[in-house]
Amino acid sequence: MLFAPTVCGKNRDANDHNDFVLEESVVRLKMIGLTLALFSALGAVMAADLPTQVHIALAGLDSNGDSNSMTVSWNTKGATTTSTVKFGTSSGVYNNAATGAAAAYYETFNHHVTLGTLAPNTQYFYIVGDDASGWSKEYTFKSAPTYNQLRGNFSFFVFGDMGEKRADDSERYIKANKESVDLIWHAGDVGYADDSFLHLGCMTEFCYEKAFDDYLNDAEEWASLRPYMVMPGNHEADCHDPACLLSRERREKLSNFTAFNGRFKMPSKESGGIMNMFYSFNYGNVHFISFDSETDYPNAPLATRYVLPCGGFGDQLKWLEQDLIKANENSAERPWVLVAAHRPMYHSTNINKELQAAVEELFYKYGVDIYITGHVHSYERNYPTYQGVPEKTYQNPRAPSHLLIGGAGNDEMKDVPNNDVSAPGPWTVVTDGNYGIGKITIEDDNNLSFDYIQTTTGKVFDTFHLYRDHSAYGKKLLV
């Protein structure tokens, strides 16, 4: 029997076609599965509310007065199930966990977690977030040493008035040199969110929160690694751009330092202070005092109002004297006493009479070594000065030295390299109108050095060495 090849060919083609259809269906099913998996993964990523703006601050207080913990802070767009930090002493191994709290003063949520007692002078690795909303990348910090572990040979950056705009040079310098310091101390005007309406496209839009977000995201590289200790300036007082002033909700929610106190958590509880307005902390052989020059002393410039009502946090001067008394009692452990606030007492030929009346006698009586400020957007080094009379020496002066370091970079610095440089006063040693920050190096119990760095070039523009015989000051009362 003869078989027609065409019939056989047709049968063979039909089988091949069926096989092809089956294979094509399988491929399509696989592609659909892969697409669904990709959409699922993308959805999970989009649903995650990953932490941003991670920064840390010293916390805790042991029986010897040493900081023995760390507070970790961050921001998320929405509420999360928990606010958790996982941490340990080896990278990728998180044997410990701590939880804290989150709150929204406006729309996004700020998380603060204090870790509990840490081993001193120890490197820790950490991640923040939670399982439901997602975890951050890994960060690291070194816990504070005890006073007898660190009697000198350490440094920290000091500056005021750094914002989200015109701070590129200082940001780059800090990022490049963050390993050279143990902490960063910022003397007010943090982020300049209240100037956001001056930014491109923001005159008729609400950009206050975005400016704060952008600033803290830029700072995260160093603020997650080194304790970032902040205090208030006038630019933290309220949101006064048109989008705020025309909205009752924004006026109420973004007044009286609310954003500043919501985004940071300084060790005020440990030191008897109030929120982030005024507090103190110890590191090595130094006692640091962060003072509020804006409110809460007689005739303070923002005692009752900036653009919106503000002030009324507490009896700051009573707290300040009690803190200085305690510092004197512990001077054997921490002989250095440094105070920072936003506004200078002496600048150019001017004296801030209200501030002078409030604190100068306390600084002199209890042996404050240096008063560090900003507010004026330039650099000015002034001799140790008391009651308007300078001591033109840094070799064991009786009065506190005065440093104004207000040119780290912000919206208002439009005249660099001569920004806000004024005529020298009788106490003035040197001035500069470039972008710059300061670096203090504690050498030992009686010697420190200071460098002022122009951050555009990275060069040290000014330096001095301070010697103080602390056995002669502090406990010695005025006569």
What does this structure look like?
The chain is α+β, with helices and mostly antiparallel strands and 479 residues long. The chain folds into two domains: 1-47; 147-472, 4-Layer Sandwich (Purple Acid Phosphatase, chain A, domain 2). The protein has nine helices and 28 strands. α8 (316-329) packs parallel to α9 (353-365). The relative contact order is 0.11. Residues 1-12, 36-46 and 475-479 have low confidence and may be disordered.
Strand-helix topology:
Elements: H1 5-47, E1 52-59, E2 69-76, E3 84-88, E4 96-99, E5 101-103, E6 109-114, E7 123-130, E8 134-135, E9 139-142, E10 154-159, E11 162-163, H2 168-177, E12 183-186, E13 190-191, H3 208-223, E14 228-230, H4 242-245, H5 248-253, H6 258-263, H7 268-271, E15 279-283, E16 286-290, H8 316-329, E17 336-340, E18 346-347, E19 350-351, H9 353-365, E20 370-373, E21 379-382, E22 385-386, E23 389-390, E24 401-405, E25 428-432, E26 436-442, E27 447-454, E28 459-467
Parallel strand pairs: 10-12, 11-13, 12-14, 16-17, 17-20, 20-24
Antiparallel strand pairs: 1-2, 2-6, 3-4, 3-7, 5-6, 7-8, 7-9, 10-26, 15-16, 18-19, 21-24, 21-25, 22-23, 26-27, 27-28
